[in-house]
């Protein structure tokens, strides 16, 4: 089989069971592809030679025992974690191995991948473009078939946005679905770990693998862990079971007018509207909804995130691990400074508390909207991938590129990016948001839509 | 909200961030711009609105105090830049050393 690196996770598992190739042939094929393409893409920071298991790529902000974990920062240039993150333990128990660690914006802070201390990752669809961020390497590696699937983290859009910009599936689970133990914390009230995959069905399987409480992340509680009917792809009992849904009859999709206003590229809008039309053909009913506080989401997000960042990154003292604090990069320092200021005496009420109140209003917007619909659909990113270097000198401009992903992060609800077309040869993702802890519905809607199109089959020419 | 260079220096001290003169100047500009943008939040009426700090609504989860497996001493020390007799070594707190 010459093209085994283009197989989805489910196809790979089936092929291994049917002895179409061995685990060592599988790993060899991926290692060879990494060797030939990574110099162009800079997706992997560290590659692990291995012969066993299903090769996955892991964002370099997630701790892997014995494998260097830098978080894209010079401050952790020599950090070798003495333990595995919970998600890594869970993957290893499913015969998944780590083929390497993936580049990201330093401490997951950035929307383009360019804030990594180890150089930017390139977009596989066009090497002069950014792949999005902060999980830049996780997205590029899956898009370029350098691993079967990858893990990333999403704080304000860092899974969904790069998935959209590189044409792969990206899932941010509900806050509290997946334990963050062993993931280097950025903003603890927002951070979530989730998969990048080649298909929606693959995302469902990886989510099933990594979900559930471990006793180390108090936000993940027992009640949140059973995925109601989500375990359709259970590996137990031989053959994988596949979802049976063929149409979207009976599903109501909400289209928020605030996600189609000023700032949305006209061509991206056209692609997203076509995807909604396609969903109508599949049987959905479209409901117009409003999320009136969307316009304040970026301000709320940045205020709270800066504050949590300044507190979380205080741990880097150069004593127990890592280098001294002068090794932080520009954007990291900027955020620590803003957060320290927002939490400082005399300003706490005006910034942090004010933002937390507006966050309530944003969360309530979604609660009201979901009384009228089952999922919310819109664009992930206002534009397709932009040129490397284009926004790097204007932090505020960069922050505004997360405008459609941030609200869901603040509300803690799950979000999926599914490939839905192209503009000038660059991928566009459709964002599907669900009710809190209702990954099941967004995955089902995403999968039925995906299977009715050929977009997910498109591969970059490398 | 304008952040003066003096304020930037004060915040840098609170954050334990060594900044160059050049960075101090640049941050005064950049941070002021970002704070101006964030100040738009003041347009929202939040009278009587509760704060959301965490959507999981889980508060102070307690655990039984029972011994469990943990990192070994070697594991805990393996990334330390300075160690002495099986401990982290660091600058003195009370002396100027």
TrEMBL record, chain A:
Similarity-based family: Belongs to the amidase family. GatA subfamily.
One GO cellular component, as annotated: glutamyl-tRNA(Gln) amidotransferase complex
Organism of this sequence: Candidatus Daviesbacteria bacterium GW2011_GWA2_38_24
Name of the protein in its database record: Glutamyl-tRNA(Gln) amidotransferase subunit A
UniProt KW keywords: ATP-binding, Ligase, Nucleotide-binding, Protein biosynthesis, Transferase
Family annotation (NCBIfam families): gatA
Record's function text: Allows the formation of correctly charged Gln-tRNA(Gln) through the transamidation of misacylated Glu-tRNA(Gln) in organisms which lack glutaminyl-tRNA synthetase. The reaction takes place in the presence of glutamine and ATP through an activated gamma-phospho-Glu-tRNA(Gln).
Active site per the UniProt annotation: 59 (charge relay system), 134 (charge relay system), 158 (acyl-ester intermediate)
Pfam families per UniProt: Amidase
Enzyme Commission identifier(s): 6.3.5.7
GO BP terms, alphabetized: translation
GO molecular function, one term: transferase activity
Catalytic reaction(s) noted: L-glutamyl-tRNA(Gln) + L-glutamine + ATP + H2O = L-glutaminyl-tRNA(Gln) + L-glutamate + ADP + phosphate + H(+)
From TrEMBL, chain B:
EC numbers for this chain: 6.3.5.-
GO BP annotations listed: glutaminyl-tRNAGln biosynthesis via transamidation; regulation of translational fidelity; translation
Pfam families in alphabetical order: GatC (PF02686)
Top-tier EC class: ligase
Any one GO MF annotation of this record: ATP binding
Gene3D superfamilies: Glu-tRNAGln amidotransferase C subunit, N-terminal domain (1.10.20.60)
Protein keywords: ATP-binding, Ligase, Nucleotide-binding, Protein biosynthesis, Transferase
Family according to the record: Belongs to the GatC family.
Subunit description: Heterotrimer of A, B and C subunits.
HAMAP family the record matches: GatC (MF_00122)
Name recorded for this polypeptide: Aspartyl/glutamyl-tRNA(Asn/Gln) amidotransferase subunit C
Lineage: Bacteria, Candidatus Daviesiibacteriota
Gene designation: gatC
């Amino acid at each position: 089989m010459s093209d085994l690196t283009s197989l989805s996770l489910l196809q790979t598992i089936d092929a291994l069971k049917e002895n179409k190739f061995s685990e060592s042939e599988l790993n060899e094929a991926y290692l060879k592809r990494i060797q030939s393409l990574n110099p162009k893409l800079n997706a992997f920071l560290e590659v692990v030679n291995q012969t066993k298991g299903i090769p996955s790529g892991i964002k370099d902000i997630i701790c892997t025992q014995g494998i260097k974990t830098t978080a894209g920062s010079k401050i952790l240039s020599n950090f070798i974690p003495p333990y595995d993150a919970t998600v890594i333990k869970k993957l290893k128990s499913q015969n998944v191995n780590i083929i390497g660690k993936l580049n990201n914006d330093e401490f997951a802070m950035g929307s383009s991948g360019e804030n990594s201390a180890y150089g930017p990752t390139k977009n596989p669809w066009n090497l002069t473009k950014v792949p999005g961020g902060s999980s830049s390497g996780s997205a590029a590696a899956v898009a370029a078939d350098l691993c079967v699937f990858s893990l990333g983290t999403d704080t304000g859009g860092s899974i969904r946005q790069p998935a959209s910009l590189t044409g792969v599936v990206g899932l941010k689970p509900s806050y509290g679905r997946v334990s963050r133990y062993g993931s280097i914390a950025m903003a603890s009230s927002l951070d979530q770990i989730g998969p990048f995959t080649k298909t929606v069905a693959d995302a469902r399987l990886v989510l099933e693998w990594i979900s559930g409480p471990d006793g180390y992340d108090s936000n993940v509680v027992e009640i949140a862990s059973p995925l109601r009917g989500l375990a359709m792809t259970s590996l137990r009992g031989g053959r994988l079971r596949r979802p049976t849904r063929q149409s979207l009859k009976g599903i109501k999709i909400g289209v928020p007018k605030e996600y189609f206003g000023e700032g949305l590229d006209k061509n991206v809008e056209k692609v997203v509207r076509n995807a909604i039309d396609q969903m109508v053909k599949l049987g959905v009913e479209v409901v117009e909804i409003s999320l009136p506080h969307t316009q304040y989401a970026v301000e709320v997000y940045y205020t709270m995130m800066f504050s949590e960042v300044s507190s979380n990154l205080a741990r880097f003292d150069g004593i127990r691990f890592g280098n001294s604090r002068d090794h932080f990069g520009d954007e990291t320092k900027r955020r620590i400074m803003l957060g320290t200021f927002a939490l400082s005496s005399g300003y706490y009420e005006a910034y942090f508390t004010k933002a937390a109140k507006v966050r309530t209003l944003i969360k309530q917007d979604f609660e009201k909207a979901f009384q009228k619909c089952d999922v919310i659909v819109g664009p992930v990113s206002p534009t397709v991938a932009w040129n490397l270097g284009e926004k790097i000198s204007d932090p505020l401009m960069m922050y505004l590129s997360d405008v459609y992903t941030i609200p869901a992060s603040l509300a803690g609800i799950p979000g999926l990016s599914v490939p839905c077309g192209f503009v000038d040869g660059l991928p566009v993702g459709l964002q599907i948001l669900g009710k809190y802890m209702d990954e099941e519905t967004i995955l089902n809607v995403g999968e039925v839509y995906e299977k009715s199109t050929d977009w997910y089959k498109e591969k970059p020419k490398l | 909200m304008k952040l003066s260079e003096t304020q930037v220096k004060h915040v840098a001290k609170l954050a334990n961030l060594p900044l160059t003169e050049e960075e101090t100047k640049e941050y005064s500009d950049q941070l002021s711009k970002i704070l101006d943008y964030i100040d738009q939040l003041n347009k929202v009426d939040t009278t009587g609105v509760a704060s959301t700090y965490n959507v999981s609504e889980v508060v102070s989860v307690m655990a039984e105090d029972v011994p469990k497996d943990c990192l070994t001493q070697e594991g805990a020390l393996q990334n330390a830049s300075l160690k002495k007799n099986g401990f982290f070594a660091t600058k003195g707190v009370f002396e100027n050393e």
